[in-house]
Amino acid sequence: MVRILSDSTCDLSKELLEKYNVGIIPLFVRLGEEEYLDGINITPEDLYKWSDEHGETPKTAAPSVEVIGKMLDPKGDDEYVVFAISSSMSVSFHNIRLAADNYRMADRVHVIDSANLSTGIGLQVLRAAQMAKEGKTAAEIVADIEAIKSKVRASFVVDTLVYLHRGGRCSGLAALAGTALKLHPRIAVIDGAMHAEKKYRGNSKKYVMDYVKDMEADLKSARKERVFITHSGCDEEIVGMVRQYLEGLNHFDEILETRAGSVVSSHCGPGTLGVLFIAQ
Predict the structure, then answer these.
(1) What gap in Å lies between CA 154 and CA 274, rounded to an integer?
(2) Tens digits of per-residue pLDDT, 188-199?
(3) Which of 20, 68, 202, 277 is the most exposed place for a label (fewest CB within 10 A)?
(4) What predicted TM-score, i.e. pTM, was given to this entire model?
(5) Mean pLDDT in residue range 235-251
């Protein structure tokens, strides 16, 4: 049997994890001296509250070898395809490989550097899980994912620059100027790293829809299987507007909505929204 695992940054909902039988390896989130497990005993709302009270971004850390080992069965004969957040953002990928070596399972544990984050990973995970359900081998799944992962289009538009500033990804001057001018940058994942692209202005309804409409040509030519709306706590009306727009394209078989977990939310802050898909 081929089992599909991912670290918790894939931001898939519990319903999707259960439907596709995907196991999750949680990353650590540290609020001062306290340590939590992403998706298990901390919520993004807890994180925002602490961050605003302390004026700093929570620290995050890759899963330990011990935590990873709890998801593996050294005595069995199952194979595992395991997804990790981009290796340029975390040592999660390295630690999963280390765990496989430590448990003498390197021949059965196939670790994929997703070169992505959030549901940019989730798109790959669901594709792999579907292939596993169809009886594909681990080698076939890995080959397919490696071929398509560069086609994953992951981007987000950020509501506030405060969290990017606290996390060291935006200078104080830029954060101050951006907030004063009501600038909302589009952050895209390119070659495994985050890059700021276009900046939007206006209220949340305007800049979110401007961001989505800018992708219309790419969305219409994307793979039809699914598209994600992933956000870190946006107004339901705005999320509904994005869904209605995507439905109006009459292109995707499935439009999925997920909430970003604590690790991703800690860096982008509340109000961030992304539309993620796989290009042809």
Answers:
(1) 7
(2) 899 998 887 888
(3) 202
(4) 0.91
(5) 97
CA dist., res. 101 & res. 95, Å (int): 10
> pLDDT-based confidence at 205, cuts 50/70/90?
very high
Residue owning tokens 């999660």: 92
DSSP string for 130-164: HHHHTT--HHHHHHHHHHHGGGEE-EEE-S-SHHH
Residue 23 in contact with residue 71, Cβ under 8 Å?
A: yes
Cα-Cα-Cα-Cα dihedral sign, residues 111, 114, 119, 125 = negative
Nearest-5° Cα angle at 7, 41 to 254: 100
Strand pairing partners for 28?
37, 61
Beta-bridge partners for 277: 153
The single-letter code of the amino acid at 61 is A
- Helix (H/G/I), strand (E/B), else coil: 231: strand
